[in-house]
Specification:
The protein contains 15 helices and twelve strands. The chain is α/β, with parallel strands linked by helices and 446 residues long. The strands form two sheets. Strands 3-4-5-2-1-6 form a six-stranded mixed sheet, with helices on one face. Strands 8-9-7-10-11-12 form a six-stranded mixed sheet, sandwiched between helices. The chain starts with 5 loop residues before the first strand and ends with a helix. The structure holds guanosine-5'-triphosphate and magnesium ion.
Amino acid sequence: MIDDTIAAIATANGIGSIAIIRLSGNDALRIIKKLSKKQNFSPRYATLTNIYDNKNALIDEAIVIHFEAPHSFTAEHVVEIQCHGGFIVAQSILKACVACGARLAYAGEFSKRAFFNGRIDLSEAEAIAQLIEAKSEDAAKILAQQMKGSLKEYIEQVRDDIIHILAYSEVSIDYAEEDLPADLVRQIKEKLDALKASLSRTLQASRQREGLMQGFKVAIVGKPNVGKSSLLNKLLNYNRAIVSEIAGTTRDTIEEQVKIGTHLIRIIDTAGIRQANDVIEKIGIEKSLEAIEMSDIVVALFDSSREIDSEDAQIVSLITSHAQNKKVIYVKNKIDLTSKFFTNTIDFDIEINSKDNVDLLIEFLKNSMDTTNTSDEMMLISQRQISAVENTMQNIEESFFPLETQELEIFSFHLNEAVKEMASITRPFENDEMLDKMFGSFCLGK
Ligand SMILES: Nc1nc2c(ncn2[C@@H]2O[C@H](COP(=O)(O)OP(=O)(O)OP(=O)(O)O)[C@@H](O)[C@H]2O)c(=O)[nH]1
Ligand SMILES: [Mg+2]
């Protein structure tokens, strides 16, 4: 148990009706008693009380709740002080807590204590951290489930299955003279294959929904003058980018945040792509291509009021080569003007007038972002978790050959690595766990 008491303002900094100061540690109750001059705080009851600073001056009237150890988020004594919001009151109370012996908490320290005290595992801690920054309602739903332990359950199941197999191997190494029987080898191989397939599905679903978790990035690209900046301005509902009839108006990428349906997305207006001689324009075009590569969805804009030319064909091939595995929305713009753009090589998804109404595109974007969430496959939410699953799969793969040739030490080594990788997602693996499994299921020596 860590024995100092930490304190922090738990609510966002700024003007609001209330703010919450949180204390965690053995001294939490002593500190609030001192600040309030009150002796009784029934656990889990809201108590209205005055709060004083260390010079006895009244700071505020607040509501205090005491969560008695171990029935709190950190499993320590936790006190929450709900005071009036704004910049001053919460800071003054925090200062008073420190004057009474509390220490300012580091970022994430409450969750860290919850982890060390066994209240949450690492996957749940990550879900909490990301829920706070969720970029869409769908992402928030997934994270809320994971905070409740759905990812943990899945990972623990995989870990348990591997430990079980590992136990067979370890027992054979230590106690059996002979090889594993052929039908057992077949069963183990089948089980490992199934585990690998399940992990691979999880990995794929997680990659597909990366945009959902991190917030989708949408790049608007096309030739100069097709109306990209006009479209950005319309989506943002104000004139963010300069719009003019001069081709090459936008020279740099412009990135803004906007809410589309239930998603908070980053939208990037780019410099028109063409054969340029101007150095600055060339750099701008390079950045346009980079924007395609780093976005999840590409809006490819074409000008319906001009005849199709070789530059349009070039744009299509650039997009195809730079936007592999990305959603590309082909949009015909300026449909209020006489149409001169005839082609059967581009299959347009929608037609708009970006100066006037872009509702169709908004609908299309919403659908593209929502449909990425149809599967209820388990989802990994951080690069750390993704690497751990990749390494697990790699080790399972590498265990097949030694299993076949009955080199059980090497087989065990790879499964051990696989378990450690899985365990790094939730909670560290201890050798006892495997011993328990071995002795539990084999009754060795009785
Ligand atoms: N009639 C009509 N004009 C449009 C439409 N969209 C854009 N324009 C006009 O087309 C011209 C170019 O628009 P921009 O939005 O600056 O085009 P852009 O693609 O950002 O151009 P660059 O930044 O040079 O690459 C401006 O004069 C706009 O007013 C549209 O839907 N209809
Ligand atoms: Mg522009």
